[in-house]
Amino acid sequence: MKKVPILMYHHVSSVSEATPLKSLFVSPRVFDLQMKVLSFFGYQGKSMRELLPYLDGKKEGKVFGITFDDGYKDVLENALPILNKYGFSSTCYVVSDEVGNYNRWDEGYKDRHNLMDIPDLNTWLNSGQDIGVHTATHVSLLNLQESRYTEEILNPKTKLENFFPGRQFQDFCYPYGDFTLNVVNFIEQSRAYKTATTTVRGVAKAGDNALLLSRVFMKNNMGFVKTFLKVILGIK
Ligand SMILES: [Zn+2]
How many angstroms separate the alpha carbon of residue 44 from the centre of ligand 1? Predict the structure, then answer.
């Protein structure tokens, strides 16, 4: 089936060697280069909402998804101008209880990074970018009691939609890539989300289960050749 690569990013910012979560950073220069490579080969970067018809097999074309996990402010500051330059859209997965705060869930690393606040997210949305849901607190869904599924999976969608009247958010991302069959069944039965992305490495294809989508982990050492091989050819 037709390949539909979905890129996974966290931070778009230059980073010092000392940062514990260094692998989650792509510098603005490298991000620009990666977008340039894909644009050069005729590919259009799309949000999960715009990518869905390609994943469903209803549309075909040279497209790829762009996703940013967690909602860092550096994505607004550094990635947005580059997305605008290439005319690409993307989905940023937001942790609804931490809007305007920092990555509290990484507390053990003592490495705080600011998350977008409501005005930031408004700017993001009004610039043609999209938002997805990344639970209320960035909880691991692996061992979460079923009685808490609603508060972590469904309530954050309502909360985010209430922040932005008239908007509807239909894309979900499993924190840490953690999910169980129970979680996936719950999401499917709730009909709250049309897509859900994992951290399973690989290129998604048309016809894949839309609630179990694999992604390409984009890194700072991926220049022209690696971007071509990993995203376009789908070589792991
Ligand atoms: Zn995350």
Answer: 25
Residue 30 lies in a domain: yes
- Work out the percent of the chain whose per-residue pLDDT is above 70: 99
Query: What residues contact residue 223 under an 8 Å CB cut-off, 6+ apart?
Result: 30, 33
Q: How confident is the model at residue 115 (pLDDT cuts 50, 70, 90)?
A: very high
Distances (CA, A) of 215 to 7, 67, 200: 6, 9, 6
Give domain status of residue 183, yes or no.
Answer: no
Question: Between vectors from CA 175 to CA 172 and to CA 178, what angle results, nearest 5°?
Answer: 100
CA–CA separation, 63 and 165 (whole Å): 29
pLDDT at 15: 81
Report if residue 160 sits inside a domain. no
In tens, the pLDDT along 39-70 reads 999 999 999 999 999 999 999 999 999 999 99
Compute the distance from residue 186 Cα to the ligand 1 centre, in Å. 20
| Dist. CA 134 → ligand 1 center (Å) | 7
The residue range of the domain holding 119 is 6-132+199-232
Q: In CATH, what number is assigned to the domain containing residue 28? A: 3.20.20.370
Count up the domains in the chain and report the number.
1
* Mean pLDDT over each residue of the chain, to the nearest integer: 96
pLDDT band at 218 (very low <50, low <70, confident <90, very high): very high
Q: How far is the CA of 17 from the centre of ligand 1 (A)?
A: 21
Measured in angstroms, how far is the CA atom of residue 73 from the centroid of ligand 1? 14
